[in-house]
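User: Can you predict the 3D structure for this chain?
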Amino acid sequence: MHRDEATKRFHSGGDAFADLIDDTSPAQLPTPDTDVPMVSRSVRLPLETHERVRAAADARGIGVTTLMRQWIEAGLADLDDSATVSLADVRRALASLSRPTAA
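Assistant: Here is the predicted structure, written as structure tokens:
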């Protein structure tokens, strides 16, 4: 349908435009990855910082926003003295304890 025809149907009132919309198939939206309500925020980063964050996220196989959220949550946990550490960091720490140190 041409834009002018759609505009005429919209301004004419009645159910003509609603019927046109109802004829379309429902949109396939992605399923959210969490049940927790999220808030979107915009953050301005220098290009170099953004590239480093993207590389770090790619190395972990996760998205940039997921990694940034993890870092923010870890920083907040540090502020309130609750510990948030990755399992990989715990394993590295334990492995280093089992190795003899050079005297």
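The mean pLDDT is 80. DSSP finds five helices and no strands in the chain.
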